């Protein structure tokens, strides 16, 4: 199924700015520490600084590759369904929606939403998606409209 069959595009939700900010901070901090380890090695000539610099470089690279991999990830709501990554679904294909809200001492509340299609496919929507609460409400409303119709 393609997005063309889902009708008019109603809204687009990208990655939450909080997660973009966290990735940026990790990338900057690891780069700063990598640079400091290179400078420390050039001054002290200790092999430990090369090992630590390499570790910070690895963290930097993993963060940047993860950031680039998620950069264009969007949740798209259409009048007849939604799409997220390679998952495309119409409202009448949804069998169930299971929302779990977990409260953590650090980081606050986390929301996970499991959407299950009638054919058995499942997708988990996490708080990485911007404005997930609104998306869950819209999906629930559309499901209720389908059952009434």
Question: How would you describe this structure to a colleague?
Answer:
The chain folds into two domains: 3-10 and 85-148, OB fold (Dihydrolipoamide Acetyltransferase, E2P) (Beta Barrel); 17-70. The chain is 46% helix and 28% strand. The protein is built from three helices and seven strands, in the order βααββββββα. Strands 1-2-3-4 form a four-stranded antiparallel β-sheet, covered by helices on one side. Strands 5-6-7 form a three-stranded antiparallel β-sheet, with helices on one face. The mean pLDDT is 85.
Could you write a compact summary of the structure shown?
With 149 residues, the chain is of the alpha+beta class.
Largest sheet: 4 strands, antiparallel
Report the radius of gyration as a whole number of Å: 21 Å
| CATH third-level topology of the largest domain | OB fold (Dihydrolipoamide Acetyltransferase, E2P)
Q: What is the total domain count?
A: 2
CATH class of the largest domain: Mainly Beta
H/E element sequence: EHHEEEEEEH
Number of separate strands = 7
Q: Can you name the CATH architecture of the largest domain?
A: Beta Barrel
Mean pLDDT: 85
Overall shape: it is elongated
């Amino acid at each position: 199924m393609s997005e063309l069959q889902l009708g008019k595009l109603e809204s687009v939700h990208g990655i939450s700015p909080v997660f973009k900010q966290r990735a940026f901070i990790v990338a900057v901090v690891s780069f700063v520490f990598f640079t400091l380890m290179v400078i420390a090695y050039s001054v002290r000539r200790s092999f430990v600084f090369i090992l630590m610099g390499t570790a910070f470089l690895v963290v930097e690279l993993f963060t940047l590759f993860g950031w680039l991999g998620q950069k264009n990830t969007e949740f798209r709501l259409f009048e007849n369904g939604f799409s997220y990554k390679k998952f495309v679904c119409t409202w009448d294909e949804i069998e169930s929606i299971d929302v779990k809200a977990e409260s953590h001492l650090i980081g606050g509340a986390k929301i996970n939403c499991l959407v299950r299609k009638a054919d058995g496919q499942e997708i988990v929507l996490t708080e990485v998606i911007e404005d997930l609460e609104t998306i869950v409400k819209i999906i629930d409303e559309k499901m209720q409209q389908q059952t009434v119709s």
